[in-house]
Design goal:
The protein is 43% helix and 18% strand.
């Protein structure tokens, strides 16, 4: 896999164009709609990935407890913590419709270790989103080479 991105979102129809645009930018995108499938793919391929993109609000499924995910409201944060526990330097992008992020959550995202980006879906057309992801990952590679 080259330039592989794991994209986690329970609404595949909503991000179909975003995935298409990312592929047009040269990324190999693996879209998973459930956290169970995402964790399986991540476990098998984490060393091949250049980034993980995840929604925040998603069903918690069976591998994440309702308490951990605050009944699905923060499932993406559980994904983030699990990804970072295994690959602490892997760039992580939150791409979500959550517009009223509480201060503690936003501070956690913004002040967390490097290589973390928070984007609201409503602010980006698919081509703009893909361009922003490409720019972010290019900057990460320049400032933090592997």
């Amino acid at each position: 896999m080259k330039n592989a991105i794991l994209f986690i979102d329970d609404d595949a129809g909503r991000v179909e164009n975003d995935v298409y645009e990312l592929r047009s930018c040269g990324f190999e995108v693996h879209l998973e709609q459930s956290v169970e499938n995402a964790f399986r793919f991540f476990d098998d391929n984490c060393n091949e990935l250049v980034a993980v993109i995840s929604d925040i609000m998603m069903p918690h499924g069976e591998t994440v407890t309702s308490e951990e995910s605050v009944d699905g409201l923060r499932t993406g944060l559980v994904v983030f913590r699990r990804v970072r526990s295994r690959c602490p330097d892997l760039p992580f992008i939150f791409f979500t419709n959550v517009t009223t992020v509480d201060d503690a959550l936003r501070k956690h995202i913004e002040s967390n270790e490097r290589s973390c980006l928070y984007l609201e879906k409503r602010h980006y057309l698919s081509n703009e989103f893909a361009g922003r992801v490409k720019e972010f990952l290019t900057d990460e590679r320049q400032h933090h080479p592997v």
